[in-house]
Write a structure and sequence with these properties.
This protein is an alpha+beta fold. The chain has 3 helices and 9 strands. The longest helix is centred in the N-terminal third of the chain and has 32 residues.
Length: 172
């Protein structure tokens, strides 16, 4: 019997102890890497990456009048909206950026090409006409404001609720 074989017989666990520790370390490294990769995907794409149903983004735009058009106090607005669900509402409003206020003008049906007339009797000069996406609560607030026509306007919305805007110049 050789010295190597004698050493193996004397300490038979020597080789088997090292291999499982390496395997466990590799397994831990793989699990940690997989968790970090999944965390990255969730942060980058959001939680919807695991949702099997497609999510469609609501879109809307004002087609007419064109940006920087000069208009009168009665403005024919043509536009389109897409992917609006039953619990979402589209509104046209004039915005005052200086005071962060909006003046709601018209509730627009969703998922259609629309044409409506908005009145801008109290406004003059450079104005911003916006297309907004509202939830049920904001829709009710804007509808109530519109029925009372308060001169101070409503708080201007931003972010995901602001679908599109154009700048207009209103003649006196």
């Amino acid at each position: 019997m050789t010295d190597k074989q004698k050493a193996k017989l004397a300490n038979p666990l020597e080789e088997t102890v090292d291999k499982p520790v390496e395997a466990i370390n590799k397994k831990k490294l793989f699990i940690i890497t997989a968790i970090l990769f999944l965390a990255f995907l969730v942060l980058h794409f959001g939680i919807n990456i695991f949702n099997t149903e497609p999510t469609l983004r609501v879109t809307g735009r004002i087609l007419s009048p064109l940006k920087n058009d000069v208009t009168g106090k009665e403005i024919k607005v043509v536009g389109e909206t897409k992917n609006v669900t039953a619990d979402q509402y589209i509104w046209l409003a004039f915005d005052n950026l200086e005071f962060a206020k909006s003046w709601p003008k018209a509730h627009i049906p969703g998922n259609i090409k629309f044409s409506t007339i908005v009145l801008a009797e109290e406004l003059k000069g450079d104005q911003r006409l916006s297309l907004y996406l509202l939830n049920e609560k904001l829709h009710k607030q804007w509808k109530e404001w519109q029925s009372k026509e308060k001169p101070l306007g409503v708080r201007m919305l931003s972010g995901k609720r602001h679908l599109h805007f154009i700048r207009l110049f209103l003649e006196k």
